[in-house]
Structures are given as structure tokens and as C-alpha cells.
Design a protein that fits this description.
Helices cover 70% and strands 0% of the residues. The protein is built from five helices and no strands.
Length: 200
């Protein structure tokens, strides 16, 4: 356990370029999911505070988590979020009808594609750290059926879109934290090398 806690980007195969790329994708998703929420609230006349609570089930964040655990938590949350979003889109089209495709439907499609890209990217980061051949975080306990009544369904859709936005922001925070830690480690290593050189 101690070995896992001391793992870092420096002694793993995790590339700062890859983490930065993932962070940029997460930033894009954050903006796109915010726009989707705005469009959906306008479409269904929901106020800004119409939803609360989380649908995604992951352990709470902790400063004690190492790089691998932080990535695993994020990847697991994104996997659950993707499953919820795919089910929400299917349920909405089944129950509320497809209709003419407009800005809302196009934005929903964009968010779905960006989330899939971010999930793939974080999966690759986790493989680089953990060396796992396959990643299958559990979806046990995740409610994918959606509620029965029309109003509850619309509110559930709002919750799902809120989860996408929440975890896009969490992804940005986690990935930028990893970049900051890597920069601190590099700076510390440089200082140690400089000190050693000065002593010779």
C-alpha cells in the first residue's frame, strides 16, 4: 500500500502531454455540457435550482489518493456518467419523441461524443499508470431505467445532464492537479540536482 501511495507521474509512464490533452478535452466538455444544461432548462422551463443530489456512485475525493486512485475514481465516474447519458438520450427519444433536430439535439450529440472521447482518454491515462489491459469499473447500483412519470422523467434527464457537467468540472480539477503535482516534482528534482552539482 505504501508503494502505491508514493507513485507519481514522475515514476510512471504517464505523459504530461497526454494529461494536458485530457484536461483540454475536459474543459471543452465543461463548456459544452453547461450549454446543454442551459438549452434543456429553457426547453422544459426548469429553474436553475431544479435538481440536486448525485446519481453517480464513487468514493469521496481525498488528498490521500495517489495518481492511480485519482484517475481510477475519475474514470469510474465518467463511465457511469456515459452510461446514464446514453440511457437518458434513448429514454428521451422513446418517451418524448425525436421530432425535428435543433440546437438542443445537436448540443446533446456533441456532449455525448466529447464525453466518449474524454472517457477513452482517461482510460489510456489509467492504463499508462496501472498497466491494466482492460478497465471495467463497476456499474453496480447505478439506476439506468429512469422514472415512470413524464415529469419525473424530465427531472431525471436534468439530473443526468447535471452529472455530465459536474464530472466534466471534476475532470478538469483532477487533471490540472496532476499537472501541478508533476511540475512541483520536476522543480524539486531540478533543485536537488543543482545542489548536488554545486557540492562537486
Amino acid at each position: 500500500m505504501a508503494d502505491r501511495r508514493t507513485r507519481s507521474m514522475k515514476n510512471s509512464n504517464l505523459s504530461r502531454t497526454a494529461v494536458n490533452r485530457a484536461s483540454m478535452i475536459a474543459l471543452q466538455l465543461q463548456g459544452e455540457s453547461s450549454k446543454l444544461l442551459e438549452l434543456y432548462r429553457q426547453k422544459e422551463s426548469f429553474p436553475a435550482d431544479a435538481t440536486d443530489g448525485r446519481l453517480v456512485l464513487v468514493p469521496p475525493p481525498s488528498s490521500q489518493l495517489d495518481t492511480r486512485d485519482k484517475l481510477w475514481r475519475l474514470h469510474s465516474a465518467l463511465l457511469q456518467t456515459q452510461s446514464l447519458l446514453e440511457r437518458a438520450i434513448t429514454k428521451e427519444e422513446e418517451e418524448l419523441g425525436g421530432g425535428i433536430k435543433g440546437e438542443y439535439e445537436n448540443q446533446r450529440k456533441t456532449v455525448k461524443g466529447r464525453l466518449s472521447f474524454l472517457l477513452l482518454t482517461t482510460g489510456n491515462l489509467l492504463k499508462a499508470v496501472d498497466g491494466a489491459a482492460s478497465l471495467t469499473p463497476s456499474l453496480e447500483g447505478l439506476e439506468l431505467d429512469g422514472p415512470a412519470t413524464l415529469f419525473q422523467l424530465k427531472l431525471w434527464l436534468l439530473q443526468v445532464f447535471s452529472e455530465v457537467h459536474h464530472w466534466s468540472k471534476a475532470a478538469v480539477t483532477t487533471l490540472q492537479e496532476l499537472l501541478t503535482n508533476a511540475a512541483d516534482e520536476r522543480s524539486s528534482t531540478t533543485r536537488v540536482r543543482s545542489t548536488r552539482s554545486a557540492r562537486r
